Amino acid sequence: MTAQPTDPPRDPEALFEAEADRAGYVRGMFGSIAGRYDLMNTLMTGGRHHAWRRLAAEALVAPGDRIVDVGCGTGDLSFACVNAGASEVIGLDVAVPMLPIARQKALDRPEATRTTGFGAGDATRLPLPDESVDGWCSAFVVRNIPDLDAAIAEAWRVLKPGGRLANLEITKMKPGPLRPFARFHFTRVVPVMGRLISGHGSAYKYLPVSVDHFDTPEEFTARLTRAGFNVTRARSLMLGTIAMHVAEKPPLN
Ligand SMILES: C[S@@+](CC[C@H](N)C(=O)[O-])C[C@H]1O[C@@H](n2cnc3c(N)ncnc32)[C@H](O)[C@@H]1O
Questions:
Q1: Whole-prediction pTM value?
Q2: From ligand 1's centre to the CA of 210, what distance in Å?
Q3: Which superfamily is assigned to 47-173+209-248 in CATH?
Q4: Span 14-57, pLDDT tens digits
Q5: Distance (Å, rounded) from C-alpha 37 to C-alpha 35?
Q6: 29, 30, 145, 210: which one has the fewest Cβ atoms less than 10 Å from its Cβ?
């Protein structure tokens, strides 16, 4: 039996078994936490999350670029791309309740009102023509995508030759003295915070499980390389709990 989109899983591990409708769960879950998503981000990261998106945007964007922000959520990476000089940013997300929040936030940012557009779209079936964007970016999304290679193939398809990709994602910390503290934060503190603030405890129980199932930074580099990208930067942030990858689709000779 597959889970209904907003079913709280008794055991988030079950979402990673064959036949589980993880994509449906992810869509429903992010839709239901949309209203509290920004506040949770700020509390979970001590406000650092904006700095990571700024770094990714600055590594990705050249002035005048057309960018797609995949899994845009409430739009913060799109706005960072606008601040970095993009002339157009298309934000796409499967969780439709995120989109009005992103549009509302754009209204408070005069530059973003002109340059951003937010709509429904799935990373594995982007509603964009081939070779139509200069940059593809995504923050804290890819560990949620069951067919990640399909999403990377879509990034390749929509990027122009010479286009760039920037990705941020939470990763497992390498063994070391700080790992037990990071684990305690993600597995104990964040789920309780999530239940109290978003009213959706299962979402924040799913988070550490999804990180455990996701690639290490080295594995993600290898995945991008297999897809044809040249990885130009792989950087660890926040004591190794966040990975930033920047890659290039080779230009035509
Ligand atoms: C943790 S949030 C990140 C939102 C935003 N990128 C940010 O930096 O705050 C993950 C987002 O990815 C979206 N998402 C998950 N799977 C997706 C997919 N296959 N295609 C597009 N969006 C997806 C979710 O709906 C959710 O809004």
A1: 0.94
A2: 13
A3: Vaccinia Virus protein VP39 (3.40.50.150)
A4: 888 877 789 999 999 999 999 999 998 998 888 889 999 999 99
A5: 6
A6: 210
Domain boundaries, the chain: 47-173+209-248
Task: Check whether 129 has a pLDDT greater than 50.
Answer: yes
pLDDT at 5: 45
Which pLDDT does position 124 carry in this prediction?
Answer: 97
pLDDT of the residue at 9: 58
